[in-house]
Design goal:
single chain, mainly beta, Porin
């Protein structure tokens, strides 16, 4: 209750400051409730209920200053107590996953703080970073210079150990806190993003970063990705190729590479989509990339990142069908050829196949009902996986 009162007071304070500083404060958000069932093919199936409410704050002034933040309320699985999950953030589960401030002046946009970051669903999407960013835009060109602090050498490192202590004449094992092992140095990431829109039918993007790891892990190296998108005669072609220096993963590891080509189109109410690609030497795509049983960043996913298990060649086909303004369906079929390790062969094997789909109904503006389900046909030691979930969602 105290936490909610503090949040309410914060809202009131922001509103008061906005009035004084001639600022505009926008409030938006979303909420959902879901029931989920997952049978991974290993052990018994599990069902869960979960829910969350999120508010977005965006304050801006006439001079170009702005601040953005998002608050999350009771975000987690039902039945686990007031905090819903063991790692809930704060009493009562009220927390923020990003908050940053900045200003715009002419073609420049300068910002810093805990920021949401993304380049593409394939390479990096919907992550968070302690970042300082300088963005320059002119015409169809955008260039961003970024600095991310991943590890700060002087952060508190504490270990808990048990030592014998003399308490009232008796030796008693007592838990005490002592300084932990030093990290050895900072870990930072320096990056540049370049995006170019050539016309309404063609654009490209490039992301290049250097990881400067001064910690004992010493995982220095380069990562990068380049993508392009073209539209013509109702068709869209997009492609991406990514590289990760093996040293950013582990000393002596192979350099990683992965890429794909996609095609999509719209034929009236039908929207087909095909993706073909590969991952090599340990490369894994971002968890957003994929379908419903492999990737996709959804509760039905049983292989979280495409490329897990070994070098992978994949082809996936999807088709959406818009029945009416309110009702739509989508089906997916994906095949994977995995050069898997002995460990992975005991799970879903060399050639798993995903068959999945969804139905979505728009009850009204900002109100939707969604049902998704899928199976992953196993070629390994595990049984076929089956997952499904239903969701009620609102946005405002």
């Amino acid at each position: 209750m105290k936490k909610l009162i503090c949040v309410a007071a914060a809202f009131s304070m922001v509103a008061g400051i906005a009035a004084v500083a001639s600022a505009e404060v926008n409030l938006s958000g979303d909420a959902r409730t879901r029931i989920r069932y997952n049978d991974s093919g290993i052990g018994d199936g599990v069902y869960k209920w979960d829910s969350r409410v999120r508010f977005k704050l965006h304050a801006k002034t006439e001079s170009g200053a702005y601040a953005k933040a998002r608050l999350r309320f009771i975000d987690g699985t039902w039945g686990l107590g007031n905090e819903y999950s063991p790692n809930a953030k704060g009493a009562g589960n009220v927390w923020s996953d990003y908050a940053f401030a900045g200003f715009k002046k002419g073609n420049l946009d300068v910002a810093g703080g805990k920021m949401p970051i993304a380049f593409s669903p394939w390479f990096l999407d919907d992550e968070r970073a302690d970042r300082f960013r300088v963005l320059y835009k002119t015409g169809g060109t955008a260039i961003a210079l970024t600095y991310d602090m991943k590890i700060y050498e002087y952060k508190d490192i504490i270990n808990s150990v048990t030592v014998p202590m003399n308490i009232n004449g008796a030796m008693v094992d007592t838990l005490v806190q002592v300084p932990g092992n030093p990290l050895g140095g900072d870990k930072s990431v320096y990056g540049v993003t370049f995006r170019q829109k050539f016309s309404d039918t063609a654009k490209m993007g490039l992301r290049l970063v250097y990881v400067a790891d001064g910690t004992n892990a010493d995982k220095d190296g380069v990562k990068g990705s380049v993508n392009t998108e073209m539209n013509f005669a109702g068709n869209k072609i997009n492609a991406e190729l990514s590289y990760k220096d093996g040293d950013t993963v582990a000393a002596g590891a192979d350099d990683q590479i992965g890429g794909y080509v996609g095609w999509s189109a719209a034929y009236g109410a039908i929207t087909p989509d095909v993706k073909v690609g590969f991952t090599q030497d340990g490369f894994t795509a971002d968890q957003t990339f994929g379908w419903l049983m492999v990737g996709g960043d959804v509760p039905t996913s049983n292989i979280g990142r495409l490329g897990t298990g070994g070098d992978t060649i994949f082809i996936g086909a999807s088709s959406g069908y818009q029945v009416s303004e309110a009702l739509s369906f989508k089906a997916n079929l994906a095949y994977f050829d995995i050069d898997s390790s002995d460990t992975w062969e005991k799970v879903y094997g060399d050639n798993p196949i995903e068959i999945s789909g969804q139905a979505k109904y728009m009850v009204g503006k900002g109100i939707s009902l969604l049902w998704r389900m899928g199976t992953l046909l196993s070629d390994g030691g595990a049984d076929d996986a089956f997952s499904t979930y239903g969701q009620m969602a609102v946005s405002f």
